[in-house]
Amino acid sequence: xxxxxxxxxxxxxxxxxxxxxxxxxxxxxxxxxxxxxxxxxxxxxxxxxxxxxxxxxxxxxxxxxxxxxxxxxxxxxxxxxxxxxxxxxxxxxxxxxxxxxxxxxxxxxxxxxxxxxxxxxxxxxxxxxxxxxxxxxxxxxxxxxxxxxxxxxxxxxxxxxxxxxxxxxxxxxxxxxxxxxxxxxxxxxxxxxxxxxxxxxxxxxxxxxxxxxxxxxxx
Amino acid sequence: xxxxxxxxxxxxxxxxxxxxxxxxxxxxxxxxxxxxxxxxxxxxxxxxxxxxxxxxxxxxxxxxxxxxxxxxx
Amino acid sequence: xxxxxxxxxxxxxxxxxxxxxxxxxxxxxxxxxxxxxxxxxxxxxxxxxxxxxxxxxxxxxxxxxxxxxxxxxxxxxxxxxxxxxxxxxxxxxxxxxxxxxxxxxxxxxxxxxxxxxxxxxxxxxxxxxxxxxxxxxxxxxxxxxxxxxxxxxxxxxxxxxxxxxxxxxxxxxxxxxxxxxxxxxxxxxxxxxxxxxxxxxxxxxxxxxxxxxxxxxxxxxxxxxxxxxxxxxxxxxxxxxxxxxxxxxxxxxxxxxxxxxxxxxxxxxxxxxxxxxxxxxxxxxxxxxxxxxxxxxxxxxxxxxxxxxxxxxxxxxxxxxxxxxxxxxxxxxxxxxxxxxxxxxxxxxx
Lengths: 219, 73, 350
Description:
Shape of chain C: elongated
Strand order of the largest sheet of chain C: 2-9-8-4-5
Shape of chain B: rod-shaped
Largest interface: A-C, 38 and 31 residues
Oligomer: heterotrimer
Number of helices of chain B: 1
Low-confidence stretches of chain C: 295-309
Structural class of chain B: mainly alpha
Largest sheet of chain B: none
Order of helices and strands of chain B: H
Low-confidence stretches of chain B: none
């Protein structure tokens, strides 16, 4: 099997597994819904500025929870099995793609529920969609890689938050800024520049993840 | 040894007390006098204290190692 | 001796930094002018406070202007140096100002052969009752600024909010840069470890990260002290402060990660991977945060940056050695940590 078909195979496997044990994904979806509702109850009047920040904070926590299980969950035997059969790059890349899709779904759900409850302040829908796409990719890359690191340690769920939050700050800052623009809070014209910057950060993190993952995978 | 340390600490805090009171009394004007020169003094002092605290930690680490060597022999 | 030279160099550079960074005087400056507000069409006396000034020296050669832009200026008609720090300026303010608004801020400029030229930017405002821009422009070009003196001695620039704290450029800012240099060193050793898994590389990366944390904490504390006393807040949205805070979070996490492994080989490998990944993820912040600052705080300024207008050549001559000096001191501390770690390993093995 070449790399590409390995990735496709793994993606297929991830989705089938997820579908078979639906409680995991429905748990995450419920997590998002209840967070949005709690946020609404505590804020009641949510202005565009707060909306923007809240959206990304909810996304951040939901993403950590969603991605955390991607490596932690898998048993040692299954990992050993993969290790003998598959290329490490195929494993990490398939997880990153799968998580990016999952986070995109989460993002759309967060957006819908927040817009339903607190109104939809987005003015440039296409730009917001692009930002959401880049954001879920960036979150997925960072969190997938960090969860691979955390899975190697014993106390992985605490470690996951401690390790991943500071690492994700650059992406988060850019996202909040960019989506503030698509909401109409910021006037600036150099948004294309920032989107390029965000894409570049994503690319750097993917490249590093691919280079470094084989070292994590060794045992 | 522990008692000696505690004693030293309390003496130190007693020595520092008048100084802190002085600072508290004069409020921000003190820091702003003489072209804010005291801000520079405070910054250098902070660096000095930081390095000293680090040194103390290192010192204690080395003491522990020395004890381990002693126990080994 | 051969192996110690860099420690000597570091200490020498730091001594140089302390001696010249603290002893070099500031350029003459103007701290205050009262009354703050003048009325057009009247003759008024303004009392001006100088800083590091010698007004009584060659007092007959003192000159002073109120200026706006580069072309409009009004010379003081009478100058009386009360003492070295105080001077009284008399202005015959014309009836019209070179502006189309009722109130305008003017920059006060005093020139003396002993002190050179010193300014108080936007230090005085003048009110006018009737607006006549053309007449104002004619009136304000009668006494142009000419032949300013340069102060001969070696000095640091005087800035109104900063005052003497401009010297913190040598004690606070290098902390951040030395931290960055040392963390780059840690990343290099992490990469070396992944290429060639030698336990000593891992210890070196660990020791350097440890020192990087120390420098980062010192940088944050000193930065907070400085910011509080100049801008009034402990924390200002500043690239260096934010990056240092994030670096502190990341590298504290690095030590938490290290603590959660028993097996030394696994610990070394995985923490090396995290070190590289984390470092690469914070580097883009250097580009990101300044871009965000522009859009979040339009027109916000007053930060010490590394731009050319903030560091003059005299300061560079101390600033760059200060960075090297602090980095070498950090390296020295790191070496001691490394040797301690080596000894501990020996004991554990024995």
